[in-house]
Amino acid sequence: MPNPGTPKSMQQMQQQMPGMPKGTMIGMVLIMVIMLVVMSFRQQIGGALNVVFQFINFGGQWPVLTLIIAGLIMITLSTVIRGFLTDPIAQARSQQIQSAFNAEMRQARLENNLFKLKKLQEKQPEMMAQSMKASTDMMKIMPVTMVVVIPIYAWVWYFLDCGIVSTELLTINLPWGPQYIMDTLWVMPVWIIIYTLISLPIGQLENRIVRFILLRKRLKDLDGIEHKS
Fold first, then answer.
1. Which residues contact 191 (CB under 8 A, 6 or more apart)?
2. Taking 70 as the threshold, does the pLDDT of residue 96 lie above it?
3. Is 61 domain-assigned?
């Protein structure tokens, strides 16, 4: 094997890297199909969901608060679904192994330890395969979560665009000035950008909390099984 870091070495390593699994492609196709179906019937789906979500629209008086609550509901549901459909112990173990491997790789490069770096690079395709498997497992779950998430997006559009909120209240103050929430900024509607910015930090926090709770529960269950045996 050539010395680590040479173009020939990098080319060989890239050839050994695993390709994208079929499961990932199927998951992406399913997500696109769900998005197309829901967005094609977003008014009907939004109107149907409004029977339940009307309790958080506040008569259209506080649209930003409604977006925050809708984001909380969406993230909570998707996080709980992912939590119950994944193995928290396997996830934690995979992340720990990947983190330790990356730390060793950085240390070998800092020390210019070519022998150790060569050994780690030989193992890198295996680590990439494990990482790809974890991504594939998440992609398999994503269509299930999209069945919940995308209809909520359809309801938010229905809430903002179907006369529930007055036009005056749809103009909000952003750092660069007043902005009509239904306008398009770059290539996306402003309301989707705001909704996403609200959901992302909440989602990260909830994801960690749910994973911690499920991991602790799983460890207690395993501990109980060991004591019985």
1. 67, 156, 157, 160, 181, 182
2. yes
3. yes
Structure pTM?
Answer: 0.65
Q: Is residue 46 part of a domain?
A: yes
Amino acid making up residue 181: I
Number of domains into which the chain is organized? 1
Full domain range(s) for residue 150: 25-86+144-219
Residue 194 confidence (pLDDT): 77
pLDDT in tens, 54-67: 888 888 888 878 88
Domain membership of residue 52 (yes or no) is yes
